[in-house]
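Teaching soon. Invent one.


***
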Amino acid sequence: MKNLISVVGPTGIGKTKLAIDLAQHFNTEIVSCDSRQFFKEMKIGTAAPSEEELAAVQHHFIGNLSVEDYYSIGQYEEDALQKLDELFKNHDTVILVGGSMMYEKAVIEGLNDLPEASTENQERLHEMMEKEGIEKLQEILKDLDPEYFGIVDIYNHRRLLRAIDIIWQTGRKYSELIAVSQDTRDFNVIRIGIEAPREELYDRINRRVDVMMDKGLLDEVKGLENFKGLTALNTVGYTELFKYLDGEWDLEFAVSEIKKNSRRYAKRQLTWYRKADDIHYLQLGYSEKDFEELLQWIGGQCQK
């Protein structure tokens, strides 16, 4: 039996480093399930692995798409499973890493057989959004499915539209429908998380945003201004700076909003992971001894 070690946790907690440490120990490769890091034009704002990190271990699904490409979670599931099949030919263990909760779920469990989008529902929702803003969709979803509202990226209108549409079509909560695992996998999954006190995590997130600004996030966003209507760019770090470039906000306020929205996203990730009972946690700033103990624990979970 092959083993997939999935490294999970909120944004800014240090997943990339742990994934690389594990990949080097197992002499294997890394598959990313961070849906924001798929886009090559968004390196800084998504904290994509650096050139050095990419050189340290072979990564897959980092910067492999353009923001102009349409790419669904279903396509990712298919591509990621195909890549794992290839990698398992030469490796007993592969590392999966990323904080996009549904993308990890797609790989380790499979997506659910949900109905196709209803054109009528989508048009109705688009009309509502144009008249009353994304806040109207947030309000509808919160009322229909508070559980999913608690974990979804509430600024991603496509996710909101999809969830409300499915609830209207099926009469069931979206959170219930996606909770059912579809396919069994022919590999063993071992989930590793990193945790830290909330204040420490939030402080790391704030500092990371400052580092992104120092690295040239504003220039990266300026270069993407012509594409700001695309779904890939409807995300934290980009929407706030587009508002600065449009003259709606000053720069200091835009940066403070990136920090606030990043912390909110981390909170949603924590809510999602807290519901799982199969994640083995390592403390942030783990020592060599902690890592050795983790490897021993993984050894006990690996299936031959």
About this structure: Residues 171 and 301 are 39 Å apart (CA to CA). The radius of gyration is 19 Å. The chain is about 55% helix and 10% strand.
